[in-house]
Amino acid sequence: MSPQKAAQEQAHMPRRSKITPERAQELYAAVLDILRECGYEALTMEGVASRTRCGKSTLYRQWGSKPELVVAALHGTRRVLLPGIDTGTLAGDLREAAQAIGTAARRDTPLMHALSHAALQSPELLCALREALIVPEIAAIEAMIRRGAARGEIPADTPAAEFVSAQLLGVMRARPLLEGKYADEAYLTRFVESAVLPALGLDAPAS
C-alpha cells in the first residue's frame, strides 16, 4: 500500500474516543446543570471545561461545537420515567404518571425552558430534546390509554384520550409561567383527578 493511500484511509477512520463512558456522563451532567442554571446562550465550551476540569481542546476534539455537545448530553442522559407503570387500571396509571412527572419537574422544567428557543432554530437540537424528555413519556401515556381501552375502562374512540399526554406534559411546563411554581406531585395529582379523569369519563376519588 502506498504511503498516500495509507494516509487517506487513516483520515477516513473514525476518531477514537479518549473519554471513558463514566467521564462522558460527568461532562453531560455538567452541561445539563449549566443549562438549568444559566440557559443555553450562557453555556460555553469554556464554562463546561472549567466546571469539569477538562481541557477545552478535548471537548472540541470530541464534540466539535456547543450544539453537538448539548445534543450528545441529551442523548447520553436519556432516561425513562413512565414505561414501568402498570397498576392494572387507567386511573391508577395516570395517578402514578402524575407522581413521576411531578417528581422530575424541578429537574426537567428548567431544562426544557432553557432549550426551547434554541431548539426551535435547530432541528437536530429539537429532535434530541424531544427524544430525551418528551417522546418516551408520550409513548408511555399512550400505552396506558390503549391498555385502559382494551380493558373496557374507556371507549376506544374517547375524544379526550388523544390529549392526555399534551395535558400532563403541557401543564408541567405551563405552571411555572402562570404561577411561578413547579407542577409538583401534589399539583399534578389534583390535575389528573380534577381534569383528566373526568374528561375520560372515569371517576375521581371523592374529596
Report on this model:
- The chain is mainly α and 207 residues long.
- It contains 9 helices and no strands.
- It has helices at 3-12, 21-38, 45-52, 56-63, 66-76, 90-120, 123-150, 164-179, 185-200.
- It is elongated and about 60 Å long.
- The relative contact order is 0.11.
Tally of strands: 0
Q: What about the largest sheet?
A: none
**CA radius of gyration:** 22 Å
Number of helical regions: 9
**Which structural class should the secondary elements be placed in?**
mainly alpha
Task: Give the averaged pLDDT, no decimals.
Answer: 88
- Residue stretches low in confidence (pLDDT < 50, at least 5 long) are 5-16
Kindly report how far apart the N and C termini lie: 81 Å
| C-alpha geometry | elongated
Quick recap:
The chain has nine helices and no strands.
Q: Which descriptors would you attach to this protein?
A:
mainly alpha
Secondary-structure map:
Layout: H1 3-12, H2 21-38, H3 45-52, H4 56-63, H5 66-76, H6 90-120, H7 123-150, H8 164-179, H9 185-200
Helix pairs in contact: 2-3, 2-5, 2-6, 5-7, 6-7, 6-8, 6-9, 7-8, 8-9
